[in-house]
Each structure stands twice: as C-alpha cells, then as structure tokens.
Amino acid sequence: MLIRRAVLTLTGVLFLGQLCLAVDPQQEWDHPSKKWNKGPVSCLMTPEEEKQFKAAKTDEEIAQFVKDFWARRDPTPGTPANEFTDLFWKRVGEADKLFSQTTDPGALSARGQVYLLLGRATKSPSPGKTIDWIYEDLPNVTPSTFTVQFSAAGGGNPLLLGRKGLEQIIAANEFLRGLGPKAAQIYAPKPAVQELPAAVEVAAPAEVATAESKLLDDNALNDTLPEAIHLKVRTDLFQATKGDSFLLITLAVPKQEAPSAALVGFARLIPYAADMKPITLAAADSFGSAEPENSDPAATFLLYQAGVGAHPGKYSLLAGVRDPASGKIGMVRQPLEVASFAPGTFQMSSVVLASQLKGPVTPPDLGEGRRAPFYLGSFRFVPSLDGVFHQGSHLAWYYQIYNAAPDPATGKPNLTLEYDLLLKQLDKAKNEWQFRSVTGPQKKPNRSSQVEAFSFELVKPVEGKPGSGWVAGEYQIQIKITDEVGKSTLTQTLPFTVVP
Questions:
Q1: Closest CA to 286 of 335, 247, 255, 256
Q2: Across-strand partners of 457?
C-alpha cells in the first residue's frame, strides 16, 4: 500500500529554504529490524518487496534485504554515493519538519509519504473542503499534470483521497521509487553545459587591416598610451559553449570629450599563455553604439560594446576609441582574467548593474551572424560604468546562474534569491561609518529560472517625509543565491551611488 497511516498534518505553503535538521533521519529510521518497513521507506516498497520482507525471519535476512533494497535504488553502482538514498533521507528530514504538528513523525503522515515520492507541489492553494497539491508539467512523469487531494474534514486529520489513482501513477513511474532504467538519468544525471542563447554565439573575429588594428599593433608594447580621449572599460563574463566563456566589453567616453557620437571602438585580448593567440576586435563594426542612450542630451557617457568568445585564462586587455573627425585617440590597458564556467559547478556570471533593462524582447537582426550590442539572450541592458544612479531613474541588474541541481521530481532547479540593500550611515555612538540595511532582506523563493533580470525605480524622497524615497549616498547590494536541492550558496556584494 502506498500510504499506511493518515494523521494530522500542517497546512500551508511547502517551503524548504529555512529547514534545519537536528537529527540525521537515516540514522534514526534505517536500522534493519522487523519494523523497518513501517518507517518512511513504506512508500518506496513494491508489493513484491513487501512479500520478500515479510518472508525474512532472521536479523541476518532482514539486514541483507535492506542492503539489497538500497542497492537496487543506487543510480551509480560501484561508486561510494547513492544519490537516490541521499535525496530520500533528505526529504524525510524535511517532511518531519514540515509536518511537525502531526501525531506521528511527519514522514509517516499522509502528506509526508506523498512528499517523499513526489517532492514539493507546484501549487498548494488555500484549503477548502479539500487540501489540494497540484503538480504541473513534471518531466519524465506520466501523466505530467495531476492533483493529489487530502480531506480537510475530521478535526484536522487530513486523509488521502483518490488513493488508487495515485498508486497507479506511482506504479507507472517506477523511478519515483528509485527503480527502473530512468532512475540513473534522473537522480544522477551527467552534467550538461548550459548554452547561452544563440544571440551571443558569435564567430571568431576575422583579422582585418584597419587604422584601429594598426593602433593596436603600434601600442602593443608601449607603456604610455594615447590619452586625448578619456576612456573607461568594463568587462562582464558569461558561460558559453565549447569550453569558452563569453566576454562583453563595454567602452565609455565622457560625452563632453566627443563632438559627435561617431567614435570607433577597438580592442585586443593578449593572452599570457604562449600557446594562445591574441583576439583582435578592430573592424569598423566590432563595437556597436548604445542607442537611443548615446543620443540622449542628458547622457553622461557615450557607450560602445562588443562581445567575443575567449578561452579561460589570463590576458592583457588593450582597448581604445578613435574619433575619425578629429583624429583624437584614447587607449587603456588593464589585466583581465577570463573565468572558466566548468560544467557541474554551481556558479554565477558577472552581475551587471544597469540603468536600462528591457525584456524579454527580440534582438534586432543585423545579418551575417552579427550580434546586436547591449543584448544578451532576450534582454537588453546598458551597463553602468561608474555605478552612479540618479534619484528618479531606474536601478536594474542582470546575471545568470549555472549548474543548479535539478529536483528529481520536477527536473527544474529550486533556487532562493535574497537581496539586501544597504546605505552607508554614520554610527554616532561609535563615530564610524557603517553599511546598514534600508529595506531588510528581500527573498524570492522557489525560483526555477537561472536567468535573473530585475529593475525598480529609485523613487525621489519627499521633502519632510523621512524614508519616503532613496536618499543620496553610498549603497551596497548584497546578493545571496541558494540552491535548495544541491545545498550550495553563492554571494556577491556590489557598490553603487545614488545622487540627486
């Protein structure tokens, strides 16, 4: 039988992000004994296994049965780990916490037993006469969408309804019990490279002889570079295919230093490794301009951007702009390390702070495989080169998350994103400046997307109303990303400034 006991359970949202287990559930429940099959594993046992367990009479026979039981459910036999066992006992601990108001341990409740097999429901509406767990679009499961119902009657004792239909689903999808050929690919999938959208897949730049390529050649070894135009350079890194990373190079020129926006950008990545070739971006269209931003009279900088694939490693980045009308040139050199976004490693891309973010949108088609500047996938954003944002403008950020562990039941990641915005303030008691939270941590749980794009207005303060808006000052964004399945965490802190 799928469920042996129906007991009191906790109604509410299934949320795993803040669970903290004091006792190892496997140590508590997985001791071979005559009552072993009455524990959490009862939902996993097939009718045939029930017969075999009941036929075991001695302690040795029971211990051998338990050993064989888990061996049949090992997606990677021959390795020390049993991924299915680890997942199952993790869920047992979660169920005991989630349903802690039950008369018996949560993992033995009706809801707990369903949770051990299917995991978190896609939706759990407020209870009425029934408590509904709605599972939608579950990969590998037939049918992929269904509802599990519990009766809310009986003084808080929810009973599983439609037991026969649920048992038919479990029997038709044996991997839910850790069995069958699908189990290995679901519980121990081979790491896959998450490809960036096609919009960022660009061919290696062709070597062309231009005025800009000559400038790069002439200044490759010079300690002193042309500075008739002051230039800022920003680099951002994302995952790409074939072992490369995708590099965005954004150039910024103070608008008062350029009589027109018709500047030509160029750059060269010079690798430290002798067996790697330089990458040159020196064609007339290697860098595209930011429009309509560059034409905005209020704009502080003229912005230009190029994207290119690069092997992980250390480089010297030589970048510049040329004004064809005046002949003025500005160049800078800076070190650059291209990160490796290794498959299977929980990582994140650069976090790009921007004043403009739009999406999802379709990038313009420039033809001939050319990539539209300031687009990445289906989002358009213009990076901030100085991290300065005006009151009344927008603050946005964009980043990508790689290799989050998929939930075996849904095939999708389960991420919790947390943001905290802090303002630099004077602690008068200590007479020192400290960053203090102005909004409190903002959590976004149960996220499956590995692309995060967020924007909000920096509302102007209302005079005489403290706390009514974003005061001028130095700020930080603290970002925390938790992979609830893989139990890994990433953090980043980014500074920015708000001005009137």
A1: 247
A2: 394
Residue 24's identity, in one-letter code, is: D
Residue 146 main-chain phi, psi, to 5 deg: -165, 170
Amino acid of residue 12: G
Other Cβ atoms less than 10 A from the Cβ of 158: the count is: 25
Beta carbons within 10 angstroms of residue 438's beta carbon = 15
By C-alpha distance, which of 243, 233, 242, 248 is closest to 200? 248
Q: Which two tokens stand for residue 464?
A: 């005489």
Residue 497 to residues 109, 387, 398, 476, Cα–Cα distance (Å): 52, 6, 18, 8
Characterize 228-247 residue by residue with b for buried, 16 or more Cβ atoms within 10 angstroms of its Cβ, and e for exposed.
ebebbbbbbbbbbeeebbbb
Beta bridge partners of 269: 279, 317
Q: Which residues pair with 399 in a beta bridge?
A: 452
Instruction: Give the CA count within 13 Å in the CB-facing half-sphere of 35.
Output: 3
SS3 of residue 89 by DSSP: helix
Per-domain boundaries in the chain:
25-187, 192-344, 387-500
CA 18 to chain centre: 18
Closest CA to 421 of 469, 473, 479: 479
Gyration radius (Cα) of the chain, Å: 29
Taking domain 192-344, whether its CATH number is 2.40.70.10 is answered by no
**Cα distance between residue 70 and residue 62, in whole Å:** 13
* Angle at CA of residue 434, ends 433 and 437, nearest 5°: 145
Average pLDDT over residues 370-398: 90
| Residue position matching structure tokens 């000559």 | 214
- Tokens at 343, concatenated: 């498959």
Same fold for the domain at 192-344 and the one at 387-500?
A: yes
Class of domain 387-500: mainly beta
List the one residue out of 489, 483, 404 whose CA is nearest residue 194.
Answer: 404
Q: Going by C-beta distance under 8 Å and a sequence separation of 6 or more, which residues neighbour residue 127?
A: 11, 152
For tokens 């020192």, name the residue.
432
> Would you say the C-alpha torsion 49, 51, 52, 53 has a positive or negative sign?
positive
Q: What are the residues facing 424 on neighbouring strands?
A: 435
Number of H helices, E strands in the chain: 8, 23
Kind of pairing between the strands at 347-348 and 232-239: unpaired
Residues 6+ apart with CB under 8 A from 284: 210, 264
Q: Write the pLDDT tens digit of every residue in 443-496.
A: 888 888 899 988 888 988 888 777 778 999 999 999 999 999 999 999 999 999
Of the candidate ranges 7-21, 49-63, 74-88, 341-355, the one whose mean pLDDT is the lowest: 7-21
344: left (phi over 0), alpha (psi -120 to 50) or beta: left
Which residues, 6 or more positions from 388, have their beta carbon under 8 angstroms from its beta carbon? 496, 497, 499
Q: Which two tokens stand for residue 385?
A: 């080169």
Residue 154 has a pLDDT of 53
| Residue type present at position 434 | Q
Classify residue 407 by its DSSP letter: P
